[in-house]
Please model this.
Amino acid sequence: AQTVTQSQPEMSVQEAETVTLSCTYDTSESDYYLFWYKQPPSRQMILVIRQEAYKQQNATENRFSVNFQKAAKSFSLKISDSQLGDAAMYFCAYRSARLGDNYGQNFVFGPGTRLSVLP
Amino acid sequence: DTGVSQNPRHKITKRGQNVTFRCDPISEHNRLYWYRQTLGQGPEFLTYFQNEAQLEKSRLLSDRFSAERPKGSFSTLEIQRTEQGDSAMYLCASSPGRGRFSNQPQHFGDGTRLSIL
Model:
């Protein structure tokens, strides 16, 4: 079974600075997807960025980018020019790319990192 | 896109009572998921539907839990004889199905927070 680990329960960053959130995962599969989701307090989870394992190029989405190291099974999230609105729980998630309707395609989530942004 | 809708937002009940939650996925999504999230943790997978068929259930889904999606649209999650340990946020998510949508992320609802007294 796949597992996702986020070793930083809490992180803080000064507004306008850069912060990196860590994520490692364990899988025996070669093809999969990785995601970072953001969950603000009392609000729904929203997608921040995703990475296909077969792609060597790191995904980028505006101020958010990832450092995907497939051999090391590492998938960190970098937030540049941090804003107050970035404060939230951040979850790293894994999903298999195996095909077939009987395979749930469910996400395996890490425990999360709570990010605080200091003004 | 009206998003994934969950009702109620918050349910408070006494231990031993039965509760039912509803999820309305995004209309064109045929995959629907239920997760449970406890405070300070990431969501844990409970069950998955492809249209009306329940194709996968987690071992977390004990006999007291049942989920349905009778017409392949909305879904309900029922917990019978609730226990203290059932207190959690129950999240519903949906995603498109086959083909080029197979790598699409899941869209989450706001969740139903269950509190057992």
Summary: The mean pLDDT of chain A is 91. Residues 96 and 102 of chain A are 13 Å apart (CA to CA). The radius of gyration of chain A is 14 Å. Chain A touches chain B through 27 residues (CB under 8 Å).
